[in-house]
């Protein structure tokens, strides 16, 4: 398989779980893969596995709980590659944990890692993605979604890990829809998805849930949005697995999307892409 020869793909959270499977599959199809994670040893193992299979990969370490680290990660991608063809924002924190935690920047941790990190990273990589056009952005969200309370986005009241997770995942979908409008006509498309329900991943097991789907099933859904020809003209959509689906109602509230975008620009310092 060489259909992706000459293409570069960057997958966050790709030393484990579904991200790792996606990275291996993209590399097997000929893409040069940028692997990301926090652990150097796991990163080295993923790169070695890709190399042993005849692929090309490089590991970039960063903790997405720090916006400074996100900026550094984006700079490393730009320094390593002159263009980017595929960006998969996959890294995230699940629902496990009852106590509220904050990021290095003082933001609620799940909102920071699952959403703000991808928002900032994507913005900083947009010039590279435009160079790679036609290019694709895939935001790995979830069917678990909860409306954003703009009076308490950081969940200082009534906190739960599940609520924080579901809010961050809806934020990803709202960002996807708004970004698609900003990128219209550029050759860069962006879509979000729930890859599969309770995949056999560390995140799911830490939440105390028995897995019911495989990571291969989830990887197939991500692959479709990242590579499949039939998605070439599709942007700003939410998928459940392989099929387009309906997200939570707030995703279709244009005022709420614009409000979230403005808040995200303010919190991250991202250069506004025009949304």
CATH architecture descriptor: 3-Layer(aba) Sandwich
Strand content: 5-15%
Structurally, how many domains make up the residues?
A: 1
Largest sheet, described in full?
8 strands, mixed
Side-by-side strand order of the widest sheet: 3-2-1-4-5-6-7-8
CATH superfamily grouping: NAD(P)-binding Rossmann-like Domain
Number of beta strands: 8
The ordered string of helix (H) and strand (E) elements is EHEHEHEHEHEHHEEH
Mean pLDDT: 94
Radius of gyration: 17 Å
Poorly predicted parts: none
> Percent range for helical residues?
40-55%
Which structural class do you get from the secondary structure elements? alpha/beta
CATH domain fold name: Rossmann fold
What's the total helix number? Answer: 8
- The end-to-end distance, rounded to whole angstroms, is 37 Å
The CATH class designation is: Alpha Beta
Shape: globular
How does this model look, in words?
It is a single chain. With 275 residues, the protein is an alpha/beta fold. It has helices at residues 17-28, 40-52, 67-80, 109-131, 161-182, 202-206, 215-227, 254-268; strands at residues 8-11, 32-37, 56-61, 86-89, 135-140, 188-194, 238-240, 243-244. β4 (86-89), α4 and β5 (135-140) form a beta-alpha-beta unit.
Task: Give a short overview.
The chain is of the alpha/beta class and 275 residues long. The protein has 8 helices and 8 strands, in the order βαβαβαβαβαβααββα.
């Amino acid at each position: 398989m060489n259909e992706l020869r000459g293409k570069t793909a960057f997958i966050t959270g790709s030393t484990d779980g579904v991200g790792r499977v996606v990275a291996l599959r993209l590399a097997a199809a000929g893409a040069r893969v940028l692997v990301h994670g926090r652990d150097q040893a796991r990163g080295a193992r993923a790169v070695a596995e890709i190399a042993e299979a005849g692929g090309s990969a490089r590991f970039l370490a960063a903790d997405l709980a720090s916006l400074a680290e996100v900026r550094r990660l984006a700079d490393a991608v730009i320094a390593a590659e002159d263009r980017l063809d595929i960006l998969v924002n996959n890294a995230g924190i699940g629902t496990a944990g009852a106590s509220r935690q904050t990021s290095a920047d003082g933001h609620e941790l799940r909102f920071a890692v699952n959403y703000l990190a991808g928002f900032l990273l994507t913005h900083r990589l947009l010039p590279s993605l435009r160079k790679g056009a036609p290019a694709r952005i895939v935001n790995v969200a979830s069917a678990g979604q909860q409306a954003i309370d703009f009076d308490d986005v950081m969940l200082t009241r009534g906190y739960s890990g599940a609520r924080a997770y579901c809010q961050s995942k809806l934020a990803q979908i709202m960002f996807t829809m708004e970004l698609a409008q900003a990128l219209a006509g550029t050759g860069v498309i962006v879509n979000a998805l729930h890859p599969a329900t309770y995949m056999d991943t560390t995140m799911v097991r830490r939440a105390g849930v028995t897995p019911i789907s495989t990571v291969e099933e989830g990887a197939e859904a991500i692959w479709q949005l990242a590579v499949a020809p039939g998605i070439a003209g599709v942007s700003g959509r939410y998928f459940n697995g392989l099929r387009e689906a309906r997200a939570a109602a707030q995703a279709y509230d244009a005022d709420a999307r614009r409000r979230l975008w403005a808040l995200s620009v303010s919190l991250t310092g991202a250069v506004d892409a025009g949304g």
